[in-house]
Amino acid sequence: MSLFQNVSTLITDVHYAIGLSFILLAIPSLYRIYFHPLSHVPGPWFAKVSPLFLWIICYLGIEGRVIRSYHEKCKTKVLRVAPNSLSISDSSAIYPIYIASGGFEKDVRYANFNLGPFVSIFSAIDTEYRDARAKAVAPLFSQARLRAACETNGVIKESVAEFVQKFQAYRAAASSKENGVVKVDMLDLAARLSIDVVTGYLLNERYGGLHENDSLPIATQIKKKLSANAFIFAIIGFSRFSLLPKRIFSLAYSLSNRLASNEEVDRSAALVHQFAEGVVKRSVGMSASEIDDSYQGRLMAFGVPPHEAVAQSEGIIFAGADSVSVTLSTILFHLVQKPAIHTCLLNEIVTDYQDRSKDPETLPYLRAVVKEGLRLCMANPTRYTRVVPDGGITVASVYIPPKTVVGCAAYTMHHDEEVFPRPFEFLPERWLEDGGDEGLRKPAMQRSMLAFGAGLRGCIGKNLAQRQLYESVVAVVESNVLEGARTVQERIEIIEWFNAEIKGHKLEIEWP
Ligand code: HEM
């Protein structure tokens, strides 16, 4: 055979191969666009043919804003975001998906959140496994126990008071430009408070976030970040892979760990692990009443072995500490940017809350501020995914067949312009009965709030988180520590992974 014949056979073979690949790709793509049981649901064509689009926006941390923009572009409440996955922006779907009869089952992506070999309350798909553990620890989140922790000598009360003292000391140093320090990072301070509250309240021993650098000069303290941060940010960061199928996830996770192996993360994870191991060790041999009083004690009394109790304790430290600190620092950030709101809040506290006889949640303006903070904070901005059971459901007149993965996202719900006009602005007044529209919007706003998720698999720590938020906002506002401050960043920018990351890991303020 001549060289010419060889080359022309090769070209023909390449043509065939390209043609064949094209057909192999085109057939499933055409099926997914025109014949799939979800072919009637609007969405961009590339999302219909492959999950790659969803994986990429998840990885890049832009899932919330991109999906919201496609809901608007396609003018639909039910959007196809992957061949078998939908985003829903209709608040009437929250009840059937998350609440009725315990809600739909979590989808397999939650297995990517397991604590290594252990399944957590959060990552469990099997509801029996989850319910047994959740039942063991549920009494710890009762309002009566929380109220006691907010009274004098209670762990929440004490931690919040120390947080404000630290804030005031940092302010004094930054105002006098001690050793060149001029800014205070509220996110870091809030993280220190939150880890101390969640550990002190649930594990009966404070991690020591607020005091870990007390021996250092104040200017050095201000510059240093919480020792558990690197561990927390590493967990947040790996959720960028959370939508991948388990096998690809494990591969991507171990590869990224190897490439980005980092001593700081290892040191930080070891510190949190040592702490959790310590509290579990000290719990072995506790009295019955002490067991009753701690998260790890209750889990072990239920039958969880100590090494699993260590992992579950690390899991709850992460779940509790990060989201509350993001929410608290978001609220404080807006109070700095809008001093008029700070003044209204202070007036309400001075007028109606001096004797501390009532529950802070009954103060209308304070409640509005906290609600608006929860709306905007985006601690968990993306879809809480669930699987449609047999029989399917109909949402906004769109039939959704069984086995479809569906989810509502706080980013889409909380930024719905029809429900929350000027959705990206911090406007607590919108929650007041006399907030300009006689409270007419309020029922729809309430229905659209998803900060803590909804139903049985909604946030187990909601009461604890809210208590800490109310106590801290009152204490900060009363202390006047924010007076005269201005924010260094103009706005809060987040990376929209399953747990949001505040860009740059800081929310700084200064006193010019
Ligand atoms: C402002 C603070 C918080 C926010 C915004 C928040 C948000 C959420 C959301 C949205 C979910 C449901 C996710 C889903 O359906 O996929 C959730 C679940 C959960 N949260 Fe929170 N959370 C906060 C504080 C806490 C605290 C303080 C704790 C515990 C100390 C906690 C522990 C959990 C656990 C264990 C679950 C899983 C519940 C289950 O699946 O049964 N969270 N949280």
Secondary structure: elements and pairs:
Blueprint: H1 3-35, H2 45-49, H3 52-60, H4 63-73, E1 78-82, E2 85-88, H5 94-99, E3 105-106, H6 127-137, H7 143-149, H8 155-175, E4 183-185, H9 186-203, H10 218-223, H11 229-238, H12 246-259, H13 263-283, H14 288-292, H15 295-302, H16 306-337, H17 339-352, H18 364-377, E5 383-387, E6 393-395, E7 398-400, E8 405-409, H19 410-414, H20 442-448, H21 462-479, E9 486-487, E10 494-495, E11 501-502, E12 508-510
Parallel strand pairs: 2-8
Antiparallel strand pairs: 1-2, 3-5, 4-12, 5-8, 6-7, 9-12, 10-11
Protoporphyrin IX containing FE is lined by residues 121-122, 130, 134, 198, 202, 316, 319-320, 323-324, 327, 379-380, 384, 451-453, 457-461, 464-465.
Largest β-sheet summary: 5 strands, mixed
Number of H- or I-type helical stretches? 21
Low-confidence stretches: none
Q: Which CATH C-level class of the domain at 108-386 and 453-510 is it?
A: Mainly Alpha
Structural class: alpha+beta
Q: From the 3D coordinates, which CATH architecture of the domain at 108-386 and 453-510 would you assign?
A: Orthogonal Bundle
Shape: globular
Report how far the terminal alpha carbons are from each other.
84 Å
CATH topology of the domain at 108-386 and 453-510: Cytochrome p450
Strand numbers in spatial order across the main sheet: 1-2-8-5-3
Question: So, the CATH homologous superfamily of the domain at 108-386 and 453-510?
Answer: Cytochrome P450
Q: β content, as a range?
A: 5-15%
The amount of helix comes to 40-55%
> Radius of gyration over alpha carbons?
25 Å
Instruction: List the bound ligands.
Output: protoporphyrin IX containing FE
Strand elements, count: 12
Mean pLDDT: 93
